[in-house]
Amino acid sequence: MNHSSLQSKPLAGGHAIVTGAARGIGRAIAISLAEAGASVVVNYKSSAAAAEETVEACLRSGGQALAVQADVSRPEQAAQLVEAAVRRFGTPQILVNNAGIARTGLLIDTSVEAWDELIDANLKAPFLCTRAVLPHMIREQYGRIINLSSIWGITGGSCEVPYSAAKGGIISFTKALAKEVGPSGITVNCVAPGAVMTDMLSNLSAEDIARIADETPIGRIGTPDDIAHLVRFLTMPASSFITGQVISPNGGLVT
Questions:
Q1: Per its UniProt record, what Gene3D superfamilies does this chain match (predicted)?
Q2: Is the model's pLDDT at 3 over the cut of 50?
Q3: Which of 44, 142, 163, 173 is labelled catalytic?
Q4: What is the pTM of this model?
């Protein structure tokens, strides 16, 4: 491969798994990695049609992609996702733990079932997927793991206590794992977005969104592509000296 090809497709020959990639930030990440030359496994839980749209977008960008259904909060399904990825593309070099859910409400009104659902989706699932992929990365002495948190994982969010707790856990998970697997050539970083225009903001009114944009120093709500560009940078071979870090693309809302 010539030098210009390496510059235009820096992830050529690489293989990525992106969880929760049917829509929103996950979709943008999958497409961005495919544009950089990676083969991408597009994980989804229930949105098969949306996942296939993500695959088609990856293919249009010139990359390879495959949609794989799995509830990654369940151990056997997380393992099957990684097995399907290995069968199709070989050893994964990149894992993006993006899948998650959000709920709002007072802690006093939060049921044990709702708490467990949020912790499972946002904290347990990244553990399960990472545990399944690590033997492959350790064998190759190379890997890039990026975990999606949130500004609420840094600051805490009123009426989002379970979500904040899970996303804060992801930050500690990232820092500890980075120390554990660094000697194996694997970096682990955390991206903690601020307000981004996805389904998670669909419950907000236009006035609420305008208020958040006004409070953000950069003057706007984030886009999925804003987050995808950062994630892609952290997957690059050239990012090898960055690990255990929490980077928050939030337009200056939290500094």
A1: NAD(P)-binding Rossmann-like Domain
A2: no
A3: 163
A4: 0.95
